[in-house]
Specification:
Helix content: 25-40%
CATH topology of the largest domain: Tumour Suppressor Smad4
CATH class of the largest domain: Mainly Beta
Number of domains: 2
Strand order of the largest sheet: 7-6-17-14-9-10
Largest sheet: 6 strands, antiparallel
Radius of gyration: 25 Å
Length: 386
């Protein structure tokens, strides 16, 4: 055996040891939980088959475990979501809503109730929730962010214990949403169709609400065409409401519009589109953490703006049911309505491209410090995945 061959033979154990030592080095733990997607095939502007293909491609490329739960019939939505959440809990995974703000809301509701990590692929018309949290509207980019994201606490609003991530409202706004949905069914889903539906709704005959509002122990009676409760600072900033900053600080924002005629309402909408709604004289706005609202009566007609009394008798508000729009979905809730900030945040898987140092969630800075309840919720919901 020649010297060179012998030297190579003797070096083999050393080479093996070096290579093994590289592979045996303790690596940093990666956060790669399995993903369980809930796709509402009837929600949003996108083709659900193309969305499924994009998910399949991204998950296989990343070698990430996943499962898709499709919702073809709205009557099976709740049952499908529960199956997805149960699967995610069993595997310490993430349940992911694929659809518009309404779909995101119902999946987030189930995730929060079962202390499950949550993700979202926005596929709706306006996508306020996704845009606020930096989730791209383009499916491939959103999937990349989801794969690389980490849990981050997100403020949740409550109305009679029903959660809302973007807004909740009574009065004119729910009517507008109902008309907008009818227009979408007929003309397709787009922001232009939504704008046209709003104009048509504004020229209709509306109800004016007589309400009692309780805030910090004080009660105020007022009349309004709509009461809007915002939990999305981006939406509030776009229409020019200074309460957007309060939402960043862990509060909710209330906007009450005084009764007015159709042209005045259209002018108010124009001010909102120009980002100057906060300067309008016929808008009352304030921020809060807890608010109680009781409907005392209602009246219909454009001339009702000049009345001082409602045309129906005032009754015990606890016997009333009132139409409420919650993240774009219409529901009936018992009065009085209790609006408040949820004590437990939703843990959203997202990629923090650039953290705003002033962006608070329930009074705490994202990425810096959280309250003890939030820390406990995060530890409980993440389980063994970290």
């Amino acid at each position: 055996m020649g010297p060179s061959i012998l030297r190579t033979f003797n070096e083999i154990p050393t080479l093996l040891r070096d290579r093994l030592s590289v592979h045996m080095q303790p690596s940093a733990h990666t956060f790669e939980p399995p993903l369980f997607f809930v796709i509402n095939d009837g929600s949003g502007r996108q083709d659900s088959s193309a969305t499924r293909q994009a998910i399949d491609s991204a998950m296989r490329s990343a070698a990430r475990r996943y499962q898709i739960f499709g919702v073809e019939d709205i009557s099976s939505l709740d049952a499908t979501i529960q199956r997805a959440v149960a699967a995610a809990k069993k595997e310490n995974g993430v349940v992911v809503a694929v659809g518009g703000d309404g779909t995101i809301n119902v999946v987030a509701t189930a995730a929060l109730a079962d202390h499950c990590l949550f993700g979202a692929l926005p596929q709706g018309t306006f996508n306020y929730f996704g845009r606020t949290h930096g989730i791209p509207e383009e499916i491939d980019a959103a999937l990349e962010d989801l794969l690389q994201g980490k849990p981050s606490p997100v403020q949740v609003g409550l109305v009679n214990e029903r959660i809302f991530l973007v807004n909740a409202s009574v009065g004119f706004y729910p009517e507008l949403l109902e008309d907008r949905e009818a227009f979408k069914q007929r003309y397709g889903r787009s922001r232009l169709v939504a704008l046209w539906a709003a104009i048509v709704t504004a020229f209709g005959d509306h109800r004016y609400l007589d309400m009692s509002l309780e805030l910090t122990g004080k009660r105020v009676n007022f009349q309004t065409t709509t009461l809007f409760i915002g939990n999305n600072h981006l939406q509030l900033e776009q229409v020019g409401m200074p309460q957007a900053e309060a939402v960043k600080q862990g509060q909710l924002a209330a906007i009450a519009v005084k009764p007015m005629g159709t042209m005045a309402m259209l002018w108010l909408a124009t001010r909102g589109a120009l980002g100057k709604l906060g300067d309008a004289d016929n808008v009352m706005a304030f921020s809060f953490r807890s608010l109680r609202v009781a409907p005392l009566g209602l009246f219909r007609g454009k001339r009702a703006a000049h009345r001082t009394e409602p045309t129906i008798a005032k009754k015990n508000p606890r016997k009333h049911r009132i139409k409420v729009a919650v993240d774009g979905e219409i529901m009936w809730l018992n009065a009085p309505l209790e609006f408040r900030v949820s004590p437990e945040p939703l843990l959203l898987i997202k990629r923090n491209h650039a953290v705003d140092p002033n962006h608070h969630v329930n009074g705490s800075l994202i990425g810096e410090s959280v309250t003890e309840p939030q820390r406990a919720a995060q530890a409980r919901m993440m389980g063994d995945t970290t």
